[in-house]
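Sync notes, pocket subgroup
Present: LS, DG
LS reminded everyone that the earlier model was apo-only. Rerun requested with iron/sulfur cluster included. Inputs:
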Amino acid sequence: MEDYIQISKINDFVFCPYSIYLHSVYENFNAKTYHRTAQTVGKIAHRPVDGGTYTTSARVLQGMEVCCERLGIMGKIDTFDAESGLLVERKYKIKKIFDGYRYQLYAQMFCLREMGYEVKSLAIQSLADNKRYKISLPDAQETAKFEELIEAMKNYRPSPPENKNPAKCAQCVYKPLCH
Ligand code: SF4
């Protein structure tokens, strides 16, 4: 069965692809933990908007499992207001909007769209200081970059980076395994 990329692993992959592999060493010695089998994809894909409608009680969807068969990705959304079309990812404290944050939101957006929802706007919420950062919907160029990233994740073969980035490595919990 085909593997699906977990949306939650996108940010780590952007940070450093090798960190995903090292994370898997801790998890269960399986280098493919950023993939997930798609046993539930069919169920997820058609669950929320059968017939293209939703009830008012389901207006704000929270923690819902989503998937996109076209891209081979799956995961969970944080909150989506199905009436306004606003998709929000909440994080404890945002110091900077990293590319990986945007890509995770794009991934959730493509899943929701394939599942029949109309996503009109994106935002990231910083809970500690109650700040909300609006994220633009991806244009054609950003969409192409995002899709290339997903392809890179699917085709990744773990190997330590040749040129390690000291600033990045200093922030990485896997440094003891890697250096
Ligand atoms: S220590 Fe550096 S090279 Fe190794 S996984 Fe972490 S960020 Fe990547």
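DG: Helices lie at 10-15, 17-27, 41-46, 99-114, 140-155, 166-170, 175-178.
LS: The beta strands are 3-6, 35-37, 60-62, 65-68, 73-76, 79-81, 86-91, 121-126, 131-135.
Action: DG to write up.
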